[in-house]
Amino acid sequence: MKLGRFTREGTTRLGKVMDDEIVDLTAAGLGTSMRSLITNFPDLRPQAEGADGPRFALSDVILEAPIDDPQKFLALGMNYKAHADKAAAAGITVPKTQLWFNKQVSCINGPYASIDMPKVSEELDYEVELAVIIGTSCRHVTVEQARSVIFGYAVADDVSVRDWQFSSPTFTLGKSFDTHGPFGPWITTGDAVADPQNLRITAWVNGEVRQDSNTSDMIYPIAEQIAHISKVMTLYPGDVLLTGTPEGTGIESQTFLKVGDKVRMEIEGLGAIENTVAPEAA
Ligand code: MN
Predict the structure, then answer these.
(1) 75 CA to middle of ligand 1, Å?
(2) 273 CA → ligand 1 middle, Å
(3) Collapsing DSSP states into helix, strand and coil, what is residue 124?
(4) Backbone angle region of 141, left / alpha / beta, with phi > 0 → left and psi within -120 to 50 → alpha
(5) How far is CA 158 from the centre of its chain?
(6) Which of 118, 246, 252, 271 is the most exposed place for a label (fewest CB within 10 A)?
(7) 177 close to 171: Cβ distance less than 8 angstroms
């Protein structure tokens, strides 16, 4: 199933995407909170599966971030082999363990919304990533159990402001500018993804391919990521984990984003997001 949030005639609702249409799940009695739908999904699944209308053309609605209020929005750095090898060759220290950092939830943004060119930086960059959405409250999850706590997957851009990212010992500020966490276009539930570690993952800037890899190139697979983080903290339904980006980001070629640039990202089977860079509002 493909579950998302959409706005039509000024109200935002939950929806189920079927081909090029979206079925209104709020009208079907499933509420307005994706986090709550995920929390109660074992009970609500039949109702969501059976919902049949009203339905709208995707082209007639605005798709929003599939979850607007996760409790956590964490991201893993340097997790693709080819990317890490290139960094090591350039003299950058590659971490010996999983490098997790926070993106503040206030940076979450829609799959087709604009992203801000910061007033305070010219080093705006993109990173296509597979987003994992947690389905079950869990702690001390084993690698073998990890798949069972995943609700689904989506496409994300871990938008980064490089000078701010590297100007302090934590990445938090450089990864958390308002609008710098677009994801979507919807959540594809885990049962609909045969092998999340074998998906083509691609990013274009103004139509030019910049990143083109496969999730099979991850150094730490998703199951190891969940096992590692859950040693520390309870994961909750709706928490979003970004799982690292492949080579080809702007910092590698010193080609940063400018106002007007269109960044498109696609992951096999999960859809695409597209965000245009706009000046930060006054
Ligand atoms: Mn990243």
Answers:
(1) 6
(2) 16
(3) strand
(4) beta
(5) 7
(6) 252
(7) no
Gap from CA of 81 to ligand 1 centroid (Å): 14
Tell me the CA–centroid distance for residue 157 and ligand 1, in Å: 8
Name residue, tokens 């150094």: 219
Per-residue pLDDT of the chain (282 residues), as tens digits, is: 999 999 999 999 999 999 999 999 999 999 999 999 999 999 999 999 999 989 999 999 999 999 999 999 999 999 999 988 888 888 888 888 999 999 999 999 999 999 999 999 999 999 999 999 999 999 999 999 999 999 999 999 999 999 999 999 999 999 999 999 999 999 999 999 999 999 999 999 999 999 999 999 999 999 999 999 999 999 999 999 999 999 999 999 999 999 999 999 999 999 999 999 999 987
What is the distance in A from the centroid of ligand 1 to the CA of 242?
Answer: 7
Residue type (1 letter), 191: D
